Please model this.
Amino acid sequence: MDKQLWKHIQAVRQASPLVHNITNFVVMNNTANALLAVGASPIMAHAHSEVEEMVGICQSLVINIGTLDEYFVTSMLLAAKRVNELQKPWLLDPVGAGATSYRNTVLSQLLECKPTVVRGNASEILALAKANSTTTKGVDSTAQSNEALDAARFINSKYGAVVCISGATDIIVSQEQTVYLSNGNALMTKVTGLGCSASAVIGAFIATVENTTEAVAAAMALFSISGELAAKHSKGPGNLQVNLLDTLHAITEDEFTNTLKIKHA
Model:
């Protein structure tokens, strides 16, 4: 797989997939810019009157529940049901899972539409699987990524989704294997919405790469390595936001392969 990851990055740049995002107000600009930086084309659309048609013209869908309201929830359910009917890939980002009963209800409805990928931090994955009584602290992870492994395996088994647990080590769980990525930088946690941007980037890769596990690994490796490299010449989180976009856009094969820290199990 390791040698394939850079090829997948190149494939996304060449294909420039259209990625339909129904996401939260906090990160719309960030996620659109991240998609453009990796070579994809973002569409942000949530009007009930067009959302199903929009799913039809895009190559993938990303649903992020960060700032829920009833109008957006209807948009999400319409889009998720339509993308499922069309058998196109889609990602669910369960931001703040477990924080409220409303959020959990919405997530249960969305999971029934069989997401291709679920990406969240350890607390969100734990809450989503209801594996134990761990609660979420806002949208920040209060658990380590490896603590959510059983929860991720449960979600993968029940819904068929490849599960990506974000953390100091990103863990990707599929039926065939478990992949560990140990790139990134602590400064990334000081910029809002970077996890949401990573989800959007995964959306571009699952639109282009047939093997979902490899698609998620390539997307997360690209994002975390770019953050690690960008942090080296960033004075703080403000610089990091800009430098990360530049690195996502301009990263070289040597930079990628020489920085990649990956293990398989």
Notes: DSSP finds eleven helices and nine strands in the chain. The beta strands are 18-22, 41-44, 60-64, 90-93, 117-121, 162-166, 170-173, 178-181, 262-264. Residues 212-231 form the longest helix (20 residues). The radius of gyration is 17 Å.
